[in-house]
Amino acid sequence: MSARSVSGWGAPCAGLIFLPALLAPGAVLLARVSGSPILLPALATLAVYPMLAALLVRGRRRSAAVAALLWAASLSASIIACAIRDPGGTGAVVLHGTAYRDEMFAFIRSGWGTESDPRRFLPQHVLHLVVFCILAACSAGLLGIALGAILVGYMSYYVGCLAASGGAPAIAVCLGWPPWAILRVGAFVLLGIALTDPLLMAVRRRFREASGPPPGSTAVEPHLPPARRPWRAWYLAAGLLLAADAGLKFLLAPTWAALLRPCLGP
User: Fold this and answer.
1) What is the pLDDT of residue 183?
2) pTM above 0.85, yes or no
């Protein structure tokens, strides 16, 4: 690949990285207007998947991961903001939002629950992980992102409701997402990117073989992506993040509940 072609990718790739984060608030607002809980993960997925696929096709793995993380942060912030303003209306469009909020509020009040019991939260984590990996691998990442949008959605709705409770909204916004949950999001992003790539590239190769080279073009593709390396390091990093997630949750969940208890008010 020539230096000219590499430099030509800079601006388009930068746009692809930041565009999902810019589109995520619109997805949340449209879902709120529609009142449909299915529309939120669908629109949120639509806001990120085309850009993610385009970056992976170009061989921009790290850029794709950054785009997914920014999208998740923007999606979370948008849902939190909507939940603070209108908890009831936002809960109507967030799948599992109300049930998860009630579960977390009960845990914060008592310090005990699924969050602090590894016999209960580890099977749940494993179930989410297995389903996510299967969906991502079988759909070139599309359904994995949809599941990720659901998980981010109800977690963020709970944080917004916690802030709306009025006890200590600043603490709720800053600490409502515990560090282990943030690590889990990072792990899912790494796994999602790694599991998306093989099928996505296979479909791309099949499409190119079926369509053939454009008329008048040479047999050599002018903009080949960089050589693709194994994903071993990405899987290892995701595994370490998931292990840290479980360990921190086991060690810190009761303490975190005590930190968040003032957020519930008197």
Assistant:
1) 98
2) yes
